[in-house]
Amino acid sequence: MNDQKLLQKEYGHLGAKIIRRRLDDLRAASTLEDMRLLPGKYHELKENRKGQIAVHVEEPKRLIFIPDHEPVPLTSNGAINWKEVRSIKVLEIVNYHGK
User: Fold this and answer.
1) To the nearest 10°, the Cα dihedral for 11, 4, 21, 62?
2) CA-CA distance, 72 to 87, in Å (whole number)?
3) Dihedral sign, CA of 48, 43, 20, 13?
4) Any residues with CB less than 8 A from the CB of 79 and at least 6 apart, and which?
5) Rounded mean pLDDT of the chain?
6) Is the pLDDT of residue 1 over 70?
7) How many alpha carbons fall within 13 Å on the CB side of residue 94?
8) pLDDT band for position 99 (50/70/90)?
9) Whole-model pTM?
10) 44-75 residue pLDDT tens
11) Sign (positive/negative) of CA torsion 81, 86, 88, 93?
């Protein structure tokens, strides 16, 4: 079974389409900064998920990923430096709000 069919089985047709679009956008980006203006509300997570980034897929699901850098580039205030993130690692697709 191909990736698209697996995604459709797990997340439905619309969910699979959105996930594929988000992944394609991430692959096409030179840096994570390129993603800020695209649909999906890319945002850094806090507390026990600090260092992770989420993008909306289909409510309430989020695609969760981290910068694939060692060390992770940070700004002077400790946030991820989106302008320097050139590689990511996808962790999961999840509803981390638990609703």
Assistant:
1) 30
2) 10
3) positive
4) 44
5) 92
6) no
7) 12
8) low
9) 0.90
10) 999 999 999 999 998 899 999 999 999 999 99
11) positive
DSSP H or E stretch at residue 93: strand 88-94
Cα first-last separation, the chain: 30
Q: What is the DSSP string of 15-33?
A: HHHHHHHHHHHHHH-SSGG
- Rounded CA-CA distance 63/77 in Å is 25
Residue 22 sits at φ, ψ, to 5 deg, of: -60, -45
- Give 59's contacts (C-beta < 8 A, 6+ positions apart): none
- CB-hemisphere CA count at 13 Å for 93? 16
